[in-house]
Amino acid sequence: MKNDKSLLLNILAIAFLAVLAYFIYSVATSNDIGIKVTDNNVVENRVAYRYLNKNVLDENSKYEWGGKAEDSAANVVTSIVADYRLFDTSLEVIVLFITVMGFGLVIPKENIKIKESTELLYHWTPLLMTYMLLVGGYMFINGHISPGGGFPAGAIMSTAILVGVLAGKQTVSHTTLKKIEAIAGTLIFSIATLGFFLKGSFFINFLEGGNVGDLFSAGLIPILYTLVAFKVAAELSGIYFEFYEGGEEHDNV
Amino acid sequence: MMLLLATFLSFVMIATAIWVILTPSLLKAIIIFAIVSLVASVSFIFMQAPDVAITEASIGAGITTAIFILSYKRVSEKN
Asked: Nearest to residue B67, comparing CAs of B48, A130, B58?
């Protein structure tokens, strides 16, 4: 019985790998936009060419208004990270998820109570947390205009939750964090799949670009950065709860 | 002047990095490691890379230090 099941699983895995291999092969050999594995493209279609000739300020530059994401994101680094290399970012988020799962395995589950924090920290924590959440929120909303982005924004927001944990305040529960993480992760990959069905490429930026420098520009990038920031914040905050809650859902301060 | 400051910061970074290795106390080493990250983030700004500087300051100096100190606390409670 057990052998039958494992045989079926093996066949399923091989079929899945075959579909994946076919997908990678078809992407690698096509001349469309998307990731390029083989070097069968003209120079003008390459990423480096577009970036070398991009100049938002000069009207005579070879920069063209094409509605593509690199035209509308003022921050070049963002449009590289969140448009051309979104696979990197999404896989980074997955690596972080696996790391947090490893933390849950390695850290022994014991009931460790949070020590009574000092008066100063306890009373100043709401102010500090508000400031940190504001900085983090600004960073992921303006990720396509100014330096920043989803990953550091999530890190800063999780630091706010760390301060709350250290002060012994009841901020968010572990289950809420897990729900936020699950919803954000599912939405990231559903948007990616939606792009595949709408424009024929995984993780493609299918929204209208808008004006360079506006808050509502760069198409999908702000939405994806918001989701990435919430996912990273929930994952990193989960680590602190892993240290402090120790299996219990609520702690008596 | 900027170049002098950047050179000075890189020397500070090297010196603190050596100090991390030579310090016998683990907790002190973690705190000095945070200083290394902080100086690194400042030097990223000198290299015109504000995105990397923000990430280095938040993750290198903030979260890594917090996780290191929490694990140090947990390990020293165990022993």
From this structure: B58
Chain B interface mutation, best of A243, A244, A245, highest count of B Cβ atoms under 10 Å: A243
Taking a C-beta distance cutoff of 8 angstroms, is the pair B31, B57 a contact? Answer: no
A242 → chain B, closest CA residue = B70
Q: A47 with A69: CB under 8 angstroms? A: no
Cα separation, A226 vs A247, in Å, equals 29
In this predicted structure, the answer to whether residue B63 has a pLDDT above a threshold of 80 is yes
Q: Indicate the residue type of B19.
A: W
Two tokens at A123? 């009373």
ipTM reported for the complex surpasses 0.90: no
Are B66 and A159 inside 8 Å of each other by CB?
Answer: yes
Whether A162 has its CB under 8 Å from any CB of chain B: the answer is yes
3-state secondary structure (DSSP) of residue B31: helix
Per-residue pLDDT tens over the stretch A194-250:
887 887 777 777 776 666 666 777 778 888 888 888 988 888 888 887 776 644 444
